[in-house]
Amino acid sequence: MFKAEIKSETLKGLVNIISTLIDEVKFTITPEGMTLKAVDPAHVAMIELKVGAKAFESYSASETEIGLDLDKVKMVLKLAGQGDLIAMEQDESKGRFVFTIGNITRSMSMVDTSSMSDPKVPQLSLSANAVILVDQLQKGIRAAESISDHIALRADPGFFELSCEGDTDDASLKLKGSDVESLEVPSAVHSLFPLDYFSNLVKAIPAGTKVKVELDSDFPVKLVFGLANGEASVVYFLAPRIESD
Amino acid sequence: MFKAEIKSETLKGLVNIISTLIDEVKFTITPEGMTLKAVDPAHVAMIELKVGAKAFESYSASETEIGLDLDKVKMVLKLAGQGDLIAMEQDESKGRFVFTIGNITRSMSMVDTSSMSDPKVPQLSLSANAVILVDQLQKGIRAAESISDHIALRADPGFFELSCEGDTDDASLKLKGSDVESLEVPSAVHSLFPLDYFSNLVKAIPAGTKVKVELDSDFPVKLVFGLANGEASVVYFLAPRIESD
Amino acid sequence: MFKAEIKSETLKGLVNIISTLIDEVKFTITPEGMTLKAVDPAHVAMIELKVGAKAFESYSASETEIGLDLDKVKMVLKLAGQGDLIAMEQDESKGRFVFTIGNITRSMSMVDTSSMSDPKVPQLSLSANAVILVDQLQKGIRAAESISDHIALRADPGFFELSCEGDTDDASLKLKGSDVESLEVPSAVHSLFPLDYFSNLVKAIPAGTKVKVELDSDFPVKLVFGLANGEASVVYFLAPRIESD
């Protein structure tokens, strides 16, 4: 059983983040909230999302699983105006999921989740971490675009840098002092990542969000941030591209 | 003879409605105003437009016919700013129609109307009618999009409903109480219509317009509404898709 | 040696004008400022641009040449916000040109200028001239679009006219009285020009700019205007299309 109401802005924020990785998703529902663990088809990135019951305006659920096609949920979101409440209800008898926005009712068949297994979230101990406003990361991505398919992240005791090297062109964004919220780097580390994955995720994070970036040399990068006024949390892993010498 | 001035917004509103059906049109001109009757090439929909002389800022005409290509008229409208007056004049000697906007003169050859006959406007007595703000109809269309090629209109003594049924998904907008301006339905009726025709017309109607919807089971739907502060009136018929059992 | 700072808006204005003609450009640098002379690949139009040191926020240079790909410079401009300062520096040792915007560094290889020769600027004495707000020229272009590939410019002792004749349609913008800033026309002249060249340039000129148009019959038209608060000047020549009788 699942029945809840959520602000359209909150649902939109969650869907924007998840849909950078996958279209068909399985939400695991408990009385305390919903969680989602997913990897992209190429197994390059993984997302773990936890949404507490308090992120919803009303929430009532027993343990269940709900499979949804996010492309369809995005169409539902387009029907909602700023500030609209979206009511959601699982109709187990018909295998349908029903959204209600004011006098609109929109129902869709649920996606079969029986073949969707939860990926294992890696336990990594990464030596460096920085807390950075997502707006800075977004600026670094814009500078890197059209130069290379990869972006280098570098953490140094004195700065955090996003950079990109092409055959004829370079771009770099160096963050230090008040450009970073916090910086804990015992010794310099850096890794190279696919720009498209990194860019899709970072652009989907709302402006003003503080993102914790955990980094090590030739390890996945781990991004941690909150959504829905802190009632939802996201952990995102992105595999590095190992540079051959 | 035809010579008139009209506000660019008024002309734009008229052209937007007509061009949902056809590109080349024949206006029948009299000293009292202009009228247009047209069906689309597939004979699925018909429009009857009457524009009184008072919809114009100035108007002087004898009985004549004017054939215009609406795609060209749309380009003229792009030259006009908010609040601009558009002067129009038929140049019979050259077979041209001349628009003047400030210091711009734009003339175009008229379309030959000799082969354009006026369609007969059907006399239908439809049992149910509802007056609905076009914004509600537009909301119903947005909900129906991408679910099916057809939209069902249903009038019930207690409500008016737009709905759409797909293989896996449904959408419905149910209007009742203050959602409708008036509702006269002796007994429940419903018909199915092609979504693209209905959507193109309804989206072209300015927000805030009240539309009278006349409906019966397996009959055309008749939409009646005013434009140009009530100085122009539109009657639109759309043929139903008969459901086979 | 070249090292300078410029407001992003100023650099954007200059790049917009030049890139209507060519993508790879050679700037000739002196301690007093930079100049550029270029023709388009089809030799239909020529531009001569002079940017004084005062157009920059800071400027320090010895005589040199700098070759740049304007498509890349446009990408740099997208990284700058309203009011941002862009620092530029030639790195001769690496053959690189380096832009800095706040904490972003963007370097690009310079284009080889050895094969780029300066075109000769023609010395023409054109009998008629008019000073016209670019907004009027832009309006005339909009009216001419989709009627013909050519636009006629006509200077008369009493008016200046942009017009276009198609097979079935005509458009004309007639400027007189307060529509023109000044008008010196001993006797009527007119020439025909390719609309795409004229349109691309005129649309790139900022609204509110006064443009001096020098015209004669079957001669190139010469457009003269200032940019960067008058600290930069542009002379543009466009070859006529000679009408055959």
Write the layout of secondary structure elements.
Three copies of one chain form a homotrimer.
Chain A: E1 2-7, H1 8-18, E2 24-30, E3 33-39, E4 45-52, E5 58-61, E6 64-69, H2 70-78, E7 85-91, E8 96-101, E9 104-109, E10 128-133, H3 134-144, E11 150-156, E12 159-165, E13 169-175, E14 182-184, E15 189-194, H4 195-204, E16 210-215, E17 221-227, E18 232-238
Helix pairs in contact in A: 1-2, 3-4
Shape by Cα distribution of chain A: elongated
* Strand tally of chain A: 18
Regions with little confidence, pLDDT below 50 for 5+ residues of chain A: none
Which chains make the largest contact?
A-B, 11 and 15 residues
Distance between the termini of chain A: 55 Å
Q: Largest beta sheet of chain A, briefly?
A: 9 strands, antiparallel
* Domain count of chain A: 2
| Fourth CATH level, the homologous superfamily of the largest domain in chain A | DNA Polymerase III, subunit A, domain 2
Brief write-up:
3 copies of one chain form a homotrimer. The first copy, chain A, is an alpha+beta fold and 245 residues long.
Explain what this protein looks like in three dimensions.
- 3 copies of one chain form a homotrimer.
- With about 240 residues, chain A is α+β, with helices and mostly antiparallel strands.
- Chain A has 4 helices and 18 strands.
- In chain A, strands 6-2-3-4-18-17-16-10-14 form a 9-stranded antiparallel sheet.
- In chain A, a hairpin with a 5-residue loop joins β3 and β4.
- In chain A, about 35% of the residues are buried.
- The model of chain A has no long low-confidence stretch (mean pLDDT about 95).
- At the A-B interface, α2 and β9 of A face α3 and β13 of B.
- β9 of chain A pairs antiparallel with β13 of chain B.
